[in-house]
Amino acid sequence: MSPLELITDHTIQNVVIGAALLGLISGVLGSFAVLRKQSLLGDTMSHAALPGVCIGFMIAGSREMGILLLGALTTGALAALVMLMLTRNSRLKTDAALGIALSTSFALGVVLLTHIQNQNNAAQGGLDAFLFGQAAATLRSDLWIMGGVTLVALALVIAFWKEFKLVSFDPQFAASLGMPVMWLEVLLTVMIALAVVVGLQMVGVVLMAAMIIAPAVAARQWSHRLESMVMLAAVVGVAGGVFGALLSALSRGLATGPLIILSVSSVVMVSLLLAPGRGFVWEGIRLWQGRRRLRYQQVLTTLYRLALHHDDPTFRSEQGMLDTYHGHRTRAALRQLLKRGLVEWRSAPPEEPRGAKHWVLTPRGRDEAERILDSLGRGES
């Protein structure tokens, strides 16, 4: 397919715009879910949306998108509110309450979907597409609904930005200031349900949870402030959504929803690996540097203790003895110490075999060893 055909194709336009709207709202609202340690909330609400879709169809008698999404919003928000009630009024932990709400509501949705399919109603064709999404079926009228929902959600985030920020990081302090913490949490929960509703047509019930979580997780690796995290999550969501949609258009036969999720998840993997200060690669480098530093500090303090023991600041320590004492080769550590000017190499005494290397602390090395031992002594005390 040529670039011109991509731009002018009406179906592709609908899919790309819908994916961008989904990425935008998912990135913004998913950031609050991740910070509130409620990553499974999106999973619960997306599965809880299925009975709402079925009930909406049973009421309307057709696949009227507005009615279906309203039903999905109602049951999704209701499941989340049940979860909040269970955690506040019982001894259940959040994960247990989420599991109860998810499994019960999804089971109800499957029962209702089976009931509708057994009625042989021609209008129910394609209703099961809400399980995995059917982006190609997105109409321009659906985009107006998705755009309206996204606009409402973003307006609420802007209007209650300070309150949402405080509730996400320190709900106890927010309560002490007299903020209605419970109602703010309810509002945030309903807004995440709005994001789920936007994504049902694009990625479906099963994959929607990943769309809520993934952009926020990727953004969290690169940012230290909520403002930058939310904006970056929105960018990741939009870029992943658009790229997945275009990839699906170029690869005929590949489902759009899974490709969108894979696109966003690839950004998550890169972020987890390479994000400065938090990525696994940098963490591995820091660990390697720490072990290397610890190893040469151990060799340095050993040379210092040997010099003290023999009451000779210029005591020569043979490398083979150091290897035996530490249980590993010390050549690399000694080379590092030599490079830093903390030790120097001396030739072996006449009575010892030729070629044996002996190492002596420099005055700078003695000062450094004393500093290390002094800091260790303060740490132990």
From TrEMBL:
Keyword Cell membrane among UniProt keywords: yes
Pfam family, one: ABC-3
Membrane topology: Multi-pass membrane protein
Cellular localisation: Cell membrane
GO cellular component terms attached to this protein's record: ATP-binding cassette (ABC) transporter complex
Highest taxon, organism lineage: Bacteria
GO biological process, any: iron ion transport
Entry-linked InterPro entries: ABC_BtuC-like, ABC_TroCD
TM stretches of this protein: 12-35, 66-86, 98-116, 143-161, 230-250, 256-275
Main location per the UniProt record: membrane
Protein name: Manganese ABC transporter permease
